[in-house]
Amino acid sequence: MRKWMTDFIYSFPFQLLILHLRSNLLLLATWLLLGMMVTGDLGGKFGLRYLFLSPEYMGEVGFMSFFYVGIGFGALVMSWNLTSYLLSAYRFSFLASLARPFTKFAFNNLIVPLCFAALFLFCQIRFGLYYELGHLSQVLWNSAGFMAGFITLVLIISVYFNFTNKDIFSLLKIEKPQSLGGAIVPGKEDIPIIEDIKLNRNQWRVDTYLNESFRPRIVRSVAHYDARLLLRVFRQNHINVLIVQLFTLVILVLLGALMDQPAFRLPTGASVFLLASVVIAIGGAISYWFNKWRITAIIVLMIVINQVTRFDIFHHKNKAYGMDYGTAPAVYDADTLQSVCNEETIMSDRLATLEILEKWKQKVSKPGKGKPKMVFFCVSGGGLKAATWATQVLQSAGKFTDGQFLEHTMLISGASGGMMGTTYFRELVLRQKNGENTDPYDPIHVQNISKDLLNPISFTIVTNDLFLPWATFEQGGYSYKKDRGYIFEKTLNENTGYVLDKTIGDYRQPEREAVIPMVFITPSIVNDGRRLVISSQPVSYMMVEPAGVNVPHSVQVDAVDFGWLFAPQGADNLRFTTALRMNATYPYVLPNVYLPSDPPVEVLDAGFRDNFGLKSATRFIHVFKDWIQENTGGVVFVVVRAFDRQREIQSSKNQGVFETILNPLEIAFKVMSLQDYEHDNNLGFIYDLLGREHFEIIRFTYHPSEELKDSPISFYLTRREREDLVRAIGSPESLESLERLRQVLE
């Protein structure tokens, strides 16, 4: 028993694992982070595991998509082995005496990759069966694709090493070996110079190793070999390490340059594995060259990168496509904003909107039916879940009311994915009214809006944005850099048949004629917390509460009319999909947009100020309350939510010291709950303003099934999530809301 334990402890695979735990924690951390992504422990709320467990290629999840993920995993495994060999081979000089030393090293260094592969396949099979509702045969076929990709990549690199690597036996045939000079590892105390190898210094005890057949073999002494030849074997292998790692980096950059071609948009899981292989290579290089100073070197490198990227040439700022950044920037300061909030300007914009209200009234009024109800459609954010749910609600509401729902809707407002689905449906209705052969109620549109956006975004981050975007494209006569913002819009247009490929100005006339409802897109301004109101109509009255006009300087300007501020910079030419993207810019997932102003206005997701569009709706009603009371039978708030407002109350009992320290920060992550309370106050204000008979709230809330209650908010939907959303519109609660809506609009 003792001999068995000794043989196990001093086997080459086990000793390599111990060495990694002692000296290569930076490399192991990469595996740990990837494992946490695959299991959902890291980035679970954003659906990061979908990138690995349900990868899409050319719009499909199948053998080929998993094959490419396997290719990426193979590159990661080879980078792991190459880097480990670079850092650790000199401690095992017996390798140089073996035929194909790197191959044998790699076979003995597979404990960590094999554990990860087992974890990946377990999660992939479970995810495929449970969330994608796949048949076992198809799920296993996908697993086979992953393994086939892995084996293919390993074989390709193995063939390269077979023709380029030399072992001690081939070098012994050379009569006059080249002078080596120097050592294979820089440093002071731990240089494995020739004498080290002769005297067996810096060596780890290894009694047995595994050959290519995974059979144990006894380690033989290398004392009788010329130490210079041993060093030459290691050095020659190190050159191959560098070549393979540089090739991986070049592949990543080339894939980013070809992002416009769907065939070159590899599944993001594959790209993440490729990036991880580069990270391991860089970490290994730093450890190789700086040895015990590696942590200091990493810190210094991070500081240098941070300082260098302050310069504009290295600092990429995403721009609003269609706008002119070459003209004089708009002045953005408190005085400028206050100057537009004068009675004359606001009255002019109010009169323009009153004309729209009159046309809306003419459109929906019916003889003998009394005054019409005015609908305000307020939709929440929440990725593709919100987009799909909003589209389904609009289709069902239209069917239940014989198409009258959207006719009665005066204003659409909201955030993120909900606005993507809503504006998509509005555009389909507009096309139908213009005589096109389009059916807005076709279920295919729910399928279109729910198509994957996460993989293209993540792919572009990994292959392009991390390496400083350089490729450009033209929009409206202006040039912009291609980044994940660009690919988001391109993919959204591809998914929806390019029906949203318009400018903000293209919607001015249809809204002005009340053919379709007005839309307010309201991203948040990072600089000062105000809301940016993007509309095809002049809406300066949305910038401040009515009291701010009647009593100047009594309240602050808390919103900005985009069309007014950026008129000289081409506000009308803003690409509509860019406005939607600005409205859905969650940090890191999409890039913050910098507008052409001085100082540059930086915007992100509308959800940080108003995730449901209720602020916009309540202010609009406040501004036009007199007209609404006189000409309508009241207002109806249709509030569409992709998640329930009822949340479990968390306890702070039995928290550890670090949890207690961080506990006050949790309030920053509960923005949605705070908004619920604030929106209730706004609705209460409207109730007091209009009265009970003129105020109605109808809610459509998506309640996921028990199995999906913790599913993430993401730009990807699994098959189970799609089917659950379809089921939800037929729930008793949803049907009751639809019936109420039908009765209200009769």
- So, CATH architecture of the largest domain? 3-Layer(aba) Sandwich
Q: What proportion strand?
A: 5-15%
Average pLDDT for all residues? 83
Instruction: List segments where confidence is low: pLDDT < 50 over at least 5 consecutive residues.
Output: 167-202, 223-227
Q: Determine and state the CATH class of the largest domain.
A: Alpha Beta
Secondary structure class reads alpha/beta
What's the domain count?
A: 2
* Helix content range: 40-55%
Our Rg estimate from Cα atoms comes to: 31 Å
CATH topology of the largest domain: Cytosolic phospholipase A2 catalytic domain
Number of strands: 17
N-to-C CA distance: 86 Å
- Give the count of helical stretches: 32
Largest sheet: 5 strands, parallel
Q: Order of strands side by side in the largest beta sheet?
A: 9-6-5-16-17
Q: Could you say which overall geometry the principal axes of the C-alpha atoms support?
A: elongated
Q: Oligomerization state of this entry?
A: single chain
